[in-house]
Specification:
The complex is a heterodimer of chains A (about 190) and B (about 325). Chain A is mainly α. Chain A contains 8 helices and no strands. The radius of gyration of chain A is 20 Å and the shape is globular. Chain A starts with 8 loop residues before the first helix and ends in a 6-residue tail after the last helix. Chain B has about 325 residues and is an alpha+beta fold. Chain B contains 8 helices and 10 strands. In chain B, the strands form 2 sheets. Chain B has a 6-stranded mixed sheet with strand order 2-3-5-6-9-10, with no helix packed on it. In chain B, strand 9 and strand 10 form a beta hairpin. In chain B, helix 5 runs antiparallel to helix 6 and helix 6 packs antiparallel against helix 7. Chain B starts with 18 loop residues before the first helix and ends in a 9-residue tail after the last helix. Classes of the chains: A mainly alpha (about 190), B alpha+beta (about 325). At the A-B interface, helix 2, helix 3, helix 4, helix 5 and helix 6 of A face helix 1, helix 2, helix 4, helix 6 and helix 8 of B.
Chain lengths: ~190, ~325
């Protein structure tokens, strides 16, 4: 008589993930590559939504993963790896906004300008213009308000999720999102939220 | 009456209320994914290089410390017999080398807002603060130096400092080797003769030498009752505890808040934060209880859909006896 022993697939996957993490913490190239391949697209999308500047995403993704692998030995696993990576990305993006503001102050030019694109379809150009306006306005917000608004509105996180990644209470996330919206409406010349 | 179209979100508590802004946000969400050229090999190589640089830096530091010890003993023995100017210079040079610039932790960036000479207005005698930043001396021995558009150093005396709400950056105040960051809308009173500063309005935080951010507790009178003020003080204490990773302490403080001041507005938000902390600590029953009490006390809470979803995710459990 044969006996079927049920395998808890989720436990096996969890054990694999822990082993991969441990190998990456030891600096093994293959393990780092596997983690990178698993998370790169999500991190890239998140960064793109935070900055709206496509060409800079590549560099920032590289910076995030280099910083992550450097800090990985200290990662205790008490937060999700995705949450931890988001925090690192948010800090790198904060640096990016700082540098961009300083550059704009020196050069007094808009940072995001459509390149000469005579063949760009009108709809794509208009979308690019709108996005440019939004991200110019986002760049003028204080970091905390911008991060809360990006997490809630653009990343579409729930209050709980945003609270987890930003490391602040739910009430603070809610307050900062609302304030950010008010400030964005002022900057963009929109009628404020009711 | 203005009609507001809400941008759908996971809950009824929409993140964006303004419909025009919502359309821009929707565009941002729908951006096509960016092409990625970076690959794992390049990242691994860069990580190896950074690790090697740090190890070299530690090696240089160890060598500098050794030279410093040797140099100091040579200086002391020479000083007993004669004056050696060159030894003093070499010891001073080594002493400076012993000041460690620790790598900036990845979790904090505000110290990178270094002042660049190019930011100074051309033709002006020196750096000037951005318009609207308030630096007001309140004592006769007050002395300060403007280091850049957003940075000022207070050397002595009493000051009231403030950043306007519309400022795009916070005001950085260097006091006694630490940096105080005043957020837009915030104002503080600094007395260099005291270690504490008074938060008069808004938000401000100390940036410690190791890069940690420690938020200031408000000392201003918000014209509320003493009970409400006490409840708010407990909420801020819990937030400070969370900021330094003291989850156990934060849970205890929130429990005290919701028991002592059950109907306060601080308790309304505090119950949700308590639930979140209890869930993170593995106490599902406690988290369920906190969410349940929040719904019972404030049935019309605008976060009701979020709370109900959180309760659903926790699943059924024993009846809540106490927080």
């Amino acid at each position: 008589m044969s006996v079927t022993i049920p395998i808890d697939v989720s436990r096996v996957r969890e054990a694999d993930a822990r082993a991969l993490l441990a190998a990456a913490q030891r600096g093994e190239a293959a393990a780092q590559a596997a983690l990178f391949d698993t998370h790169k697209h999500r991190v890239a999308r998140q960064i793109q939504r935070m900055i709206g500047d496509g060409p800079s995403v590549d560099d920032l993704v590289q910076e995030v993963f280099i910083a992550a692998f450097s800090a990985l030995p200290g990662f205790r696993g008490d937060a999700q790896l995705e949450t931890w990576l988001y925090t690192i990305a948010a800090n790198k993006v904060r640096n990016w906004w700082d540098a961009r503001r300083r550059r704009e102050a020196r050069e007094a030019t808009a940072a995001v300008q459509p390149k000469d694109s005579p063949t760009t379809p009108e709809e794509t150009f208009e979308m690019s213009e709108h996005l440019s306006r939004l991200y110019q306005a986002l760049g003028k917000l204080p970091d905390k308000f911008r991060e809360a608004f990006t997490a809630r509105a653009i990343e579409n996180m729930s209050l709980q999720e945003a609270s987890d990644v930003l490391g602040v209470p739910i009430s603070t996330v809610s307050y900062r999102t609302r304030r950010a919206e008010q400030m964005l409406c002022d900057i963009l010349g929109l009628e404020g939220p009711s | 009456m203005k009609r507001v179209t809400r941008l759908p979100n996971a809950s009824d508590d929409a993140a964006v209320l303004n419909s025009e802004l919502g359309r821009l946000v929707e565009l941002a969400r729908r951006q096509p994914p960016p092409p990625l050229t970076v690959d794992a090999d390049r990242i691994h190589a860069a990580w190896l290089e950074r690790r090697a640089r740090r190890r070299r830096g530690l090696g240089l530091l160890a060598a500098a410390a050794l030279v410093g010890l040797v140099g100091t003993s040579v200086y002391r023995s020479l000083e007993q017999h004669s004056r050696a100017i060159e030894s003093v210079e070499s010891v001073a040079h080594v002493d400076r080398a012993l000041v460690v610039e620790t790598p900036e932790p990845p979790s904090h960036t505000e110290l990178t807002r270094a002042i660049e000479p190019s930011e100074a207005v051309a033709g002006s005698p020196g750096p000037q603060l951005v318009a609207g930043m308030r630096v007001e001396p309140r004592s006769t021995d007050a002395a300060h130096t403007v280091l850049g558009p957003w940075t000022v150093e207070v050397a002595a005396g009493v000051y009231e400092l403030a950043a306007p709400i519309e400022a795009v950056s916070s005001l950085h105040v260097r006091v006694g080797g630490r940096t105080l960051v005043i957020e837009p809308g915030g104002s503080v009173r600094v007395d260099t003769g005291r270690p504490e500063v008074d938060l008069l309005a808004g938000e401000a935080a100390w940036i410690e030498r190791d890069g940690r951010r420690v938020d200031l507790a408000a000392t201003y009178d918000d014209a509320s009752s003493s009970r409400r003020a006490a409840a708010a003080a407990l909420a801020r204490k819990a937030e400070r505890q969370m900021a330094v990773g003291d989850r156990k302490g934060a849970i205890a403080t929130y429990r005290t808040l919701v028991r002592k001041y059950p109907r306060s507005s601080a308790a309304r938000a505090g119950l949700l934060d308590l639930a979140r902390l209890l869930k993170a600590a593995g106490d599902s029953d406690g988290a369920r209880c906190a969410y349940t009490v929040a719904l019972q006390r404030w049935p019309n809470n605008h976060l009701r859909p979020e709370i109900e979803r959180a309760l659903q995710a926790l699943g059924p459990g024993p009846k809540c006896k106490e927080i």
